[in-house]
Write a structure and sequence with these properties.
The protein has 11 helices and 19 strands. The protein folds into 2 domains: 196 residues, Alpha-Beta Barrel (TIM Barrel), CATH 3.20.20; 126 residues, Lyase, Ornithine Decarboxylase, Chain A, domain 1 (Beta Barrel). Strand 8, helix 9 and strand 9 form a beta-alpha-beta unit. The longest helix has 16 residues. By secondary structure, it is of the alpha/beta class. The strands form 4 sheets. The chain has an 8-stranded parallel β-sheet with strand order 3-10-9-8-7-6-5-4. Strands 1, 2, 11, 14, 17, 18 and 19 form a 7-stranded mixed β-sheet that branches. Helices cover 27% and strands 23% of the residues.
């Protein structure tokens, strides 16, 4: 893959830039294949590939051999089908009211989450006198999406009737506590999943997403569904991160200001200079996707030096205390890292009191996307 940067069409003069290392993404996919020990790897590319950009990310993963993908919404599946006509596309939302024609027209595979969805999909198949592919989700204790234990029992009593016209491509469930390897819920859900599989018609099975892959072979089954791990997030907070850094989120210094002792910065004057200070005003704020709750707690990096946020985050601007940064690294236009090799996704999430998934998916469309090979 060429190392030449490819820019998105949005504002080439934008202050903030998200650089996506497609080479690192590919290496993470290979690492997941290794850790999945023979299970199929089906990338999750919902929410515009976690805001990395659906088109370049999906194409890069398909070039690595990925032939099955997961999205959340029907619209996402339609967009993905337009660029990859021959892959399997699973839609987590399943059969939402009014979506049957689009699902069929774009050859999307709904993840059926209730008896009502099964009935609607079966009716559509019988009306067309054809067989329609589907996945089936079992709720094993998360109490979010999927068939209840009662619905599984009813389905198991007469599967040929309930699933008339449906070809089961996959039976899946989702772990609630996989990021805590010692949590009893993991074992409980695994056993409930096995019990459901034993009562239903045979089909490939999937239980593990990014964190579940780390729980051991007994959680892998036939397919894994990595999301955050592909994009460089740490699946298990208590363990080292085995994945490469994919994203580099940067902006630039707009202005440098001198503060005397006692002067304040920003809305509500939450930062007060305790020494003679240098403040950098950066073109990046919550309108670009920086989590506002990280104000006063987060850090950025200039020239490899960690610098604290100074005061509250504005919609378009942020102040940094750069007093300790070497003077030769401080100037208008100096690059500032918010995510990357110095500031990890986990660092940023911890400062904001949130998770890595929100840190990534919060990045707004006005932040320019650039794609590089390495």
């Amino acid at each position: 893959m060429s190392q030449q940067a490819r820019e998105s069409d949005s504002g080439s003069q934008a202050s903030a830039q998200l650089t996506v290392r497609l080479g690192a993404l590919a290496l993470n996919h290979r690492e997941i294949r290794h850790r999945a020990a023979g299970a199929a790897v089906a990338p999750v590319v919902k929410a515009d590939a976690y805001r990395m950009g659906l088109v370049p990310v999906a194409k890069a993963l398909a070039a690595e051999g990925a032939d099955s993908f997961f999205v959340a919404r029907v619209e996402e599946g339609i967009a993905l089908r337009a660029i990859l006509p021959h892959i399997r596309i699973f839609v987590f939302d399943g059969v939402m009211p009014g979506t049957v024609p689009a699902l069929i027209a774009h050859r999307l595979i709904p993840v059926l989450n209730s008896a009502d969805e099964i009935a609607e999909w079966s009716k559509a198949a019988r009306a067309r006198k054809s067989i329609l592919d589907a996945a089936l989700q079992i709720d094993t204790g998360m109490n979010r999406s999927g068939l209840s234990q009662r619905e599984v029992s009813a389905l198991a009593a007469n599967p040929s009737r309930a699933l008339a016209g449906i070809s089961l491509d996959l039976i899946m469930s989702h772990l609630a506590c996989a990021d805590d390897p010692d949590h009893e819920q993991n074992r409980r859900q695994r056993e409930r999943f096995r019990a459901a599989l034993a009562s239903l018609p045979p089909a490939p099975a999937s239980l593990a997403a990014s964190a579940g892959i780390e729980l051991g072979d007994e959680y892998l089954f036939d397919m894994v569904r990595p999301g955050m791990a592909l994009y460089g997030g740490k699946p298990i907070p208590s363990r080292d991160n085995p994945y490469r850094t994919v994203v580099l989120l940067t902006s630039q210094v707009l202005q440098l200001r001198h503060l005397d002792v006692g002067e304040t910065v920003g809305y509500s004057a939450t930062f007060t200079a305790r020494r003679s200070s240098t403040i950098a005003i950066v073109g990046f704020g919550y309108g670009d996707g920086l989590i506002r709750a990280s104000g006063g707690k987060g850090r950025a990096a200039i020239g490899g030096v960690l610098v604290p946020f100074a005061g509250r985050i504005s919609m378009d601007l942020l102040a940094l205390d750069v007093t300790d940064v070497p003077k030769n690294a401080l100037h208008r236009g100096a690059p500032v890292e918010f995510l990357g090799d110095t500031i990890s996704l986990d660092n940023a999430a911890r400062a904001a009191g949130t998770i890595t998934h929100e840190v990534l998916t919060a990045i707004s469309p006005r932040t320019r996307r650039v794609y590089v090979g390495d």
